[in-house]
Amino acid sequence: MDRNKRPVILLKVPSSDDFYGSALRSHNLDPIFITPSHFVFKNLKQLQAKLLEPHKYAGIIFATPRCVHAVNEALGKTPLPSCWRALHNYSLGKNTHSAAWITFQNLSTLGDHAVNANNLCDLIVETFGPKRDLPLLMPCGNGVGQTLRLRLVAQGFRVDACEVYESRSHPDFINQMRHALKFKRMETIVFFGPSSVRSSLEFFGDYNVSLKDRKLIAVGSGTRKAMEESGMQADGVVDAADVDHLINIIKK
């Protein structure tokens, strides 16, 4: 850790090309990446059965790149049935859109410019058309996709939400958090996704961590909702792609 820079905990998986890290370092901040959870696939047989019956669906929604990977795992060596290509297919954000395009041999989806569930819901309403007899298949994870599903149902859509992965606390999370929080200047924690909230809540309780003088920032409305439901108040909420807004909140 660079002691000349203000440290910030980012509860997300680190990567070599992570734009959060480079952006924060350029503003005299020291990002400390801690992986809060890992994911385990489940219910893949049920998902496979649904994927092999595209005639029963109006289309598919990919909420995260992990949903794309779950579909690919469920299919095994079998390609995605070609009938899906003619349906209403959506993805939330550029990363998810790219994952679907690459994984399923140029599968076209709408939603690459959507930054949150509300954006994607509005896009689906605008592009779907009035006939909503068949459901949209939405593979999802525990705590992921709930906002989108509820908004779509409120708009008259049928959604077949199939939970295909779940998050569990990463085995190194506790030790990494204990080490990071030893530094008195560790005043800011940034949460990425509901799973980071669940892992942290258990840790804060078990180790009597006070949040009174810490700045807690949520990335995404789903993360903010998870924090509120857990009794944690977010001091700021930013969209995943808006790193400048994140930096402004940290330095405020």
TrEMBL record:
What keywords would UniProt list here? Answer: Heme biosynthesis, Lyase, Porphyrin biosynthesis
Task: Output the Pfam families linked to this UniProt entry.
Answer: HEM4 (PF02602)
Name the enzyme group at the top EC level: lyase
The EC number(s) attached to this protein equal 4.2.1.75
This protein's pathway reads: Porphyrin-containing compound metabolism; protoporphyrin-IX biosynthesis; coproporphyrinogen-III from 5-aminolevulinate: step 3/4
Under InterPro entries, the record lists: 4pyrrol_syn_uPrphyn_synt_sf, 4pyrrol_synth_uPrphyn_synth, UROS/Hem4
Can you state which reaction this protein catalyses?
A: hydroxymethylbilane = uroporphyrinogen III + H2O
**Which is an annotated GO molecular function term of this record?**
uroporphyrinogen-III synthase activity
Which GO terms of type biological process are on file?
heme B biosynthetic process; protoporphyrinogen IX biosynthetic process; uroporphyrinogen III biosynthetic process
Give yes or no: UniProt keyword Protein biosynthesis: no
* Keyword Lyase recorded: yes
The residue ranges of the Tetrapyrrole biosynthesis uroporphyrinogen III synthase domain are 22-247
One Gene Ontology cellular component term attached to this UniProt record is: cytosol
- At the top level of its lineage, which domain of life is listed? Eukaryota
Task of the protein: Catalyzes cyclization of the linear tetrapyrrole, hydroxymethylbilane, to the macrocyclic uroporphyrinogen III, the branch point for the various sub-pathways leading to the wide diversity of porphyrins. Porphyrins act as cofactors for a multitude of enzymes that perform a variety of processes within the cell such as methionine synthesis (vitamin B12) or oxygen transport (heme).
Q: Which PANTHER family match?
A: UROPORPHYRINOGEN III SYNTHASE (PTHR12390), UROPORPHYRINOGEN-III SYNTHASE (PTHR12390:SF0)
As for family, the record states: Belongs to the uroporphyrinogen-III synthase family.
Q: What name goes with this protein?
A: Uroporphyrinogen-III synthase
What gene makes this protein? Dyak\GE24337
